Amino acid sequence: MPFSAADMTDETPYTYTRWGNPTIRRLECTLASLESGEAAVCFASGMAAISGLYHTLLAPGDHMIIADVCYPGALELARSVLEPKGVSISHVDTSEPELVRQALRPETKLVYIETPCNPILRIADIRAIAQIARAAGALLAVDATFASPAVTRPLELGADLVLHSLSKYLGGHGDTLGGAIIGKRQVVEPIRRAGVIHLGGVMSPFSAWLIIRGLATLTLRMAAHSESSLIVARFLEDHPKVLKVLHPGLASHPQHELAAGQMAQFSGMLSFQTENPMQVARNMAERLRVFHYAVSLGHHRSLIFHVPTADLQRTSLRLDDAGLARYRDWAGDGVFRTSVGLEDAGDLCRDLEKALE
Ligand SMILES: *Cc1c(COP(=O)(O)O)cnc(C)c1O
Predict the structure, then answer these.
(1) Does residue 23's CB lie within 6 angstroms of at least one atom of ligand 1?
(2) What does the buried/exposed string (b/e) look like for 291-307 if buried means 16 or more CB atoms within 10 Å of the residue's CB?
(3) What's the CA-to-centroid distance between 200 and ligand 1, angstroms?
(4) Ligand 1 within 6 A of CB of 72
(5) 72 CA from centroid of ligand 1 (Å)
(6) DSSP 339
């Protein structure tokens, strides 16, 4: 029996859940096979997975390239924890692989991207960025929470690591939290040691059980999310009060072809702009009956929430002038981030129609 995580092997029996647990291990095996990965490690939340990743792969003096638009927690954690520790960070528009190449330095250890990205559904070209990162000796990590492995499998496209918030599509029911990192065993196991065993971000086995149950319907759910979100996106595109709709499956999405090349279907996320968004947001909170006016995504229930550009810029993005101009090309003053659930698509369109009157 080992007394330290340093002596643990695959043969070490289950003695204590932070070191290893059969229910969590069962989920890890399923996730590894869904993503065509060698190994997977689960965490208490998506943010615990991101913390474990940063902590394990980046030391003082190292450099990380991070997508300038992605999940706010990933940006805020990088600024609040990595930078003070002496890790330098470049915020890059990763929808342009060439900008990733230009940002590389000899000390770049990690390229961190998210596709499709929160909240504007901009796409990053995983194949192109994987080649650029590999040539420079840096690892590429892809947060594919918005896609799920039923839509995109980043490891098959050349990424080194894929991350998920299991709280979203993989759990699928909005009733638990979890995170995961999947990739080569030699990269994943040190992340387990640091992030789970030492930093303590261990998943609850009950959450693992709920997520295993959710995964049983992943294929069916993602097909339904993908089909309904396109119906809702087309309905919104035709609506006179809607200024713009962002959905990677629409021909009007600026990267529709790239999306079609790396997404098997287009998932359930879309964002849209309207006139008078603050009034529309109030109307939504009062009038929506099928959608829930609430944050989060990937649940069986449809969720919608307004993300004002000025607020997101102040708290999280902190883009330079050029980056903010690019963000505003997609989002204007703000977007209604929409997670299309498993309800009838016609009911969802009628619900939005009432809120937009
Ligand atoms: C929700 C989310 C996270 C964080 O996951 P938690 O489980 O809430 O900690 C990270 N990335 C993306 C894209 C997310 O949507």
Answers:
(1) no
(2) bbbeeebbbbebbbbbb
(3) 18
(4) no
(5) 9
(6) E
Q: What is the pLDDT of residues 283-309, one digit of tens each?
A: 999 999 999 999 999 999 999 999 999
* C-alpha 290 to ligand 1 mean position (Å): 24
Measured between alpha carbons, how far is 281 from 273 in angstroms, rounded to an integer?
A: 11
Query: DSSP string of 31-44?
Result: HHHHTT-SEEEEES
For residue 169 and ligand 1, the question of a CB distance below 6 A is answered with no
Mean pLDDT of 185-198: 97
Q: Is 173 helix (H, G, I), strand (E, B) or coil?
A: coil
Q: What is the pLDDT of residues 1-25, one digit of tens each?
A: 667 877 888 788 899 999 999 999 9
pLDDT in tens, 68-105: 999 999 999 999 999 999 999 999 999 999 999 999 99
**Alpha carbon 298 to chain centroid distance?**
11
Q: Are 292 and 270 in contact (CB under 8 A)?
A: no
pTM, whole model, 2 decimals?
Answer: 0.97
